[in-house]
Amino acid sequence: MLEVKAVHRLDEIEFVLRRVLQRHGAALHAVGHVGHVIPADELRQATDAYVYTICHADLYAALLMADIRFAAYLPCRIAAYSRGGAVTLATASPKGMCRLLNRPDLERMAEPLEKLLSSVLEEAARPLAHPTAAAHPAGSNIGATEGQVNARAALPQRVDRCGTKIEELAGTGEHDSAGG
């Protein structure tokens, strides 16, 4: 098991992980909240946790081709949980996966994935350099990027049976009749 203590709050980890994974050519595919699974009265006694499913297809392909049983462990998951006021990031070791599958001969093949996960955990645990004026020149109106938008609980676009988006049928916000 690979584990590190993070300096971030639990609610900041998703944003941090997205940035770190992007730098490493990986993607965050899903986010699960343990609080949605555990009944509310039991959650108070447990620690709160999120599980992040990440994907790096290039590193997974070789392992899957060598032994398809790696599909039971891939894509990798990173758990972020709080205990005693501290946030911990943890993931299963790819080399440990090799041992569980009784394939220690594949540990060299799993090493790049293990290094990626270790690097991601270490970087995500440290304070991030926040974008400043150097990242966004003065007068820049860049707005939020795709990685900064949280699509959790977003409402889908409404489309009628003719394929027309309901929002496009709405007015401009100005009164469009002269009245009378």
Describe the SSE topology.
Blueprint: E1 2-6, H1 13-23, E2 27-33, H2 40-43, E3 49-55, H3 57-66, E4 76-83, E5 86-91, H4 94-100, H5 107-125, H6 166-169
Antiparallel strand pairs: 1-5, 2-3, 3-4, 4-5
Helix pairs in contact: 1-5, 3-5, 4-5
Brief synopsis:
The chain has helices at 13-23, 40-43, 57-66, 94-100, 107-125, 166-169; strands at 2-6, 27-33, 49-55, 76-83, 86-91.
Question: How does this model look, in words?
Answer:
With 180 residues, the chain is of the alpha+beta class. It has a domain at 2-125: TATA-Binding Protein (2-Layer Sandwich), CATH 3.30.310.70. It is 31% helix and 18% strand. It contains six helices and five strands. It has helices at residues 13-23, 40-43, 57-66, 94-100, 107-125, 166-169, and strands spanning 2-6, 27-33, 49-55, 76-83, 86-91. Strands 1-5-4-3-2 form a five-stranded antiparallel beta sheet, covered by helices on one side. Strand 4 (76-83) and strand 5 (86-91) form a beta hairpin. The longest helix is centred in the middle third of the chain and has 19 residues, at 107-125. Residues 131-140 have low confidence and may be disordered.
CATH class of the domain at 2-125: Alpha Beta
Query: What would the CATH topology of the domain at 2-125 be?
Result: TATA-Binding Protein
Largest sheet: spatial strand order: 1-5-4-3-2
Largest sheet data: 5 strands, antiparallel
Distinct helical segment count: 6
CATH architecture of the domain at 2-125: 2-Layer Sandwich
Uncertain segments are: 131-140
Radius of gyration: 22 Å
β-strand amount: 15-25%
Query: How many strand segments?
Result: 5
SS-based class = alpha+beta
Give the SSE order as H and E letters.
EHEHEHEEHHH
Helix content, binned percent: 25-40%
- Report mean pLDDT, rounded to a whole number: 79
